[in-house]
Write the structure tokens for this entry.
Amino acid sequence: MQILNNFSLKSYNTFGIEAKAKHFVSIKSIDDLKSVLSTDNYPEKFILGGGSNMLLTQDVNALVIHIDLKGIEIVEENDNYVEVKAYAGENWHSFVQWCLKHDFGGLENLSLIPGNVGSAPIQNIGAYGVELKDVFVSCETLEIGSLKTALFKFDDCRFGYRESIFKQEAKGKYIITSVTFLLTKKDHILNTKYGAIEAELQQMSVSNPSIQDISKAVIAIRQSKLPDPKEIGNSGSFFKNPVIHIEHFEEIKSNFPEIPSYFISESEVKVPAGWLIETAGFKGKTLGDYGIHKKQALVLVNYGNAKGSDIFDLAVLIQNTIYRIFKIEIEIEVNII
Ligand code: EPU
């Protein structure tokens, strides 16, 4: 285990922002993790996973601990189900592909999401009608203060839309070291109800889809709308989709009859932030090296050497404009560092 100084984080964040870690270490075992956490030499510590849900607006004046724990294990199985444990440093999409190769179902709709397994429960990643919580069993963690392991079961995690206990009370207190999923071995439950998937499957001329077909459809949809972080720096959806009261929604609808909506209760409506941002005129706008993606207004992008603070200022401008037009506060989903 080697501690490096003044280390560039550019290739460790999917936004591709140049920022320096005062100290940096890559961790490949729980023992190394415990030993680095117990040292007093570096009082400030910063935990880094896949770097896919953060915007670096400054250098990180701390020891950056990059969680690089690898491994995938079958914990338990019967004829119908399998419990699979993946270590935190496994790349999410590679893990999904591993499951599909073994014909284990449940994660196919979550194909091509950037980031690592260990970060997935923190924001309860979700796409195309499925959320991580739908297949989650538990996660093992290391409590930073005590260096004791702690198991979080489903109920402990208090999952919500892009939410969990790890963004609330447990924030900064635990490091997720592995996640266990319950997957199907046969009679897979296919989630094709999300409109774009059915249309994509039709285009692929697939009428009786397998989980592998669904993954291919999701990959095609994502590639057509969302920028690949290897080519254009980004952190996926920058904002959460806001939930508003029905009366507020009706008021907006009278001026904007085409507003898309998802009723989540009798009194609450979720509206796509992407639509709000597009309607406010931001879609595809560029300011030098950064801007708003041309195909999905919810995604802010770095075309080259943008500064995180500039992207953050743009995000605030978008928030203020949306508030001025619609009286809706849209919440930033990405962690601002
Ligand atoms: N829309 C617009 N303009 C845009 C973008 C979207 O009008 O620029 C409209 C679309 O026409 C559609 C609606 O907004 O009516 C929803 O769009 P989309 O299906 O693209 O989904 P989203 O709500 O914008 C969410 C997730 C994505 C996930 C997709 C698909 C959040 C914050 N984002 O986006 O997650 O891939 O659904 O399930 O919930 C991520 O979290 O990084 C992410 C990419």
User: Anything to note?
Assistant: The mean pLDDT is 96. The chain has three domains: 4-67, 72-225, 233-336. Residues 98 and 104 are 9 Å apart (CA to CA).
